[in-house]
User: Fold Transketolase-like pyrimidine-binding domain-containing protein from Bdellovibrio bacteriovorus.
Amino acid sequence: MTEPIQIKTKLAGNPSQEPQFKSFVKSKDGRQIPVADPNATRALVSLMDMNAVLGGAASHYGGPAALAELMSALHGHVFDVAARENKQWYDLFHIVNDAGHCENGLYALKANYKMAGLTLDSLKKFRSIESGLTGHGEVHCFPEGVFISNGPLGSAFPQTQGVAMGEAISGKNRVTVTTISDGACMEGEAKEAFAAIPGLAKTGKMGPYVLIISDNNTKLSGRIDAESFSMTPTFNSLKDLGWNVINLAEGNDLQKCYDTIVSAIEQAKANPIAPVIIHAKTVKGIGTKKTAESATGGHGFPLKSPSELPAFLGEILGGAALPDVFNTWIAELNKWEADIKASGVKDSGEKIQVGISSAMVRARKAGFPVLSVTSDLPGSTGVAGFRKEFPQDSFDVGIAESNMVSTAAGLSKLGYIPVVDTFAQFGVTKGALPLTMGALSEAPVIAVFSHTGFQDAADGASHQALSYVAMVSSIPHVDVYSLSCSEEADALMYTVIENFAKARKEGKVPNSAVFFLGRENFPKTYVAGTSYDLRKAQVLADTTAGKTKSVAIATTGSLVPQALQAAKDLESKGVGAVVVNCACVNHVDIATFKTVLEKTQGHLITVEDHQLLGGFGQILTHALMNADVTFKVKSLGVHGEFGQSAYTAADLYRKHKVDASAIVETTGTFFQKSGAW
Ligand SMILES: Cc1ncc(C[n+]2csc(CCOP(=O)(O)OP(=O)(O)O)c2C)c(N)n1
Assistant:
C-alpha cells in the first residue's frame, strides 16, 4: 500500500434535494428511488442548445438523449448509496464521462438536482464565454462538476485506468464508473485501455471498475457500420480480453438501466480482478421520432428556431403539457430571436473549406490520384465535397486520427496523393507521430486540419488547438500552411497537389503539407485578383504612404481580418500599417519582410491565435534575426493558458488580446515616447 498525497476535492458533494423533474425506479429491497427524469434531461438539453444556437454556436442533442436513462440511473444509484452510507458520493465513487458531446446532458441533470451551483437558469449560458458550462466537461472551468476533462473522444477513459490503479494501490478501492460512446471506442487510446484494464486487473492492480458503453451504431457523420466498419467484432472481443461483459439490450429503459448498473457495481466491488462492461444498446436522438431516424441521430441539435421548440419538447414529454419554466424559457428565446432578426446583421463571407474541396475535386478531375482518408469530420473540414463527388476514392477509417494519417502514409507509398482531415487539435496531437513516421518512410501526406485555435470557440479548451504550429512545424519535410480565405485555400491546395505529383513522377519525395484553417465564415478573398504563392508572403494592405509612423502587422490564417481592421483603425489615427499574410508558416519569406520593415522603420507586430511559445511569431522573428534584419517586435498571442467555450471566436480574441483593438493598442507602445495619438 502506498499512501498518496491528500488532494482536497473540488467536486460538489451530495445533492441536498431530489430532482425538480423526477422519475422513480424500484430498488431490489422494494424502495422507490427518485432519479432525474430522462425526458426532462432531453428537454433541458434542447432548451440550452437553443440558447447556444442563437448565440452562434453549434450544439448537440443525439448523444446526451441516448445516454439520458443510463445517466439518470447511475446518478440516482450513486446518490442513494451515498445517502445511506452517510458519506459524500465522491468518497465512494468516481464518475467520468467519455461519451461524444454528452456533457450537456450532465449539466442538465445536475441543474435538475440544483447541485454543483447549477440552476435551470445557469443552463441558459451553456457554451458562452460567461459560463463554466463549456462544450465538453472541463475541470478548469467547472471543477465542481467535472473530475476528468473530456471532449477528445477516447482520452478520458484511459485516464480512469490510472484512477482505478490508484484506488488499488492506495487500498481505498472506490468504484470507478466511466461512460463512453461507441464512436469513442474506435480511438486507439481507448483500445489500449480496453486491453490494459482487464489485463492489469487480473494481476490485482485495478480497483473496482465499471465501463458503460452507449452503443447506438452512430457517429457524427452517420451510421458507423455503413460509413466505416462495424464495431460488433470489437465489442464481441471484450469478453476474451478479460472483461465481465453484461449486455443491456434496452439502454433506454430506465428500470433496466438501474438494475444493470446496480448489479454491475456489486460485481465489480466483489471481484475487482474482473472489470465490468455494460454494453448498452441506445438510440441516438431518442425523444423525437424524426431525430432518432435521421442519418446522424440528431448529432447536432436539429432545430434552427425556438418556434420549433413547443412541438419538439411536446413529443419528448409524450404529449404532456410543458411545465411553466419551459414555456417562459421558450418565450425568452423567441424574444432573443426577434431581436437578432431586427438587428439584421448578415454574414456575407464563406468558409475556407469551400476552397479545399474545390481544389481537390479539380485535381482529381485533372487526373491526379487524390484519395480522401477521413476520420468522421469531413463535413467540418471541407473534404466532404470531394467525397461526395468521388466516393470510390474516399475511405473512412472511423474515429481514429492516428490510424487515418498512417493509412494515408501507406497509400502514399504506393503512389497515391492521400488527403487526411480532422480538427487541428486531433490532427496535431494524435497525428504527430504518424506524420513523423510518414515523413521518415518517404510517404508524405496532405493534411487538412480545421477549427484552429479559438475558431473552435464553442467546443471549448479541449478542442482549441493553440499549439498547432508548434506541434508540427519542426517535423522534417513537413510544410505548414495557415489559410485565411477560400480562394487562398483553393490555390495553395491545388499547387501542393500538382507539386506532389510532379515530384513523385521525377522520382523525388515531396514534402508533406499540413493546411490549417478556421471554422467561421471569412471573405472569399482579401484583394481581388491577387496571386497566391506557396512560399511568398502576401502584402494585403499598405497605408504607409505619407505617414511618419508605421507598423508592419504580420499574421496568418484566421487573424488576417483582425490585422486588416487594425490597419484601418490605425490609419484613422494617422499611423500607417503594412499587413503581411504569411500562409506558409515554417518557411519565412525574408525578402518581403526586409522591404516591408524598411517602410515601417523596423516596427513589427506579430499576431496569432496560438501560444506565443513555439508559434508563428517566434518562427518569423528568429528567421529574420538570423538573416540580420533589424526590427523591434511586439508579439500578440496566447500566454500559456487554455481557452474555454465562447459563442464565437471574436469573444476569445478579445479576451486573449489578439484582436484588432489589441493590435492598435500595442502599436501605441512603439510610439509612446514620441507622443503619437
Ligand atoms: C478525438 C476526437 N475526434 C473527433 C471528435 C469529433 N467528434 C465529436 S462527437 C463525434 C462522434 C460521436 O459519435 P459517438 O462517439 O458514437 O457518440 P454518440 O453517437 O453516442 O453521440 C466526433 C467524431 C472528437 N470529439 N474527438
User: Anything to note?
Assistant: The chain has three domains: 22-339, 352-522, 538-671. The two ends are 67 Å apart (CA to CA). DSSP finds 25 helices and 20 strands in the chain. The first strand starts at residue 22 and ends at 26.
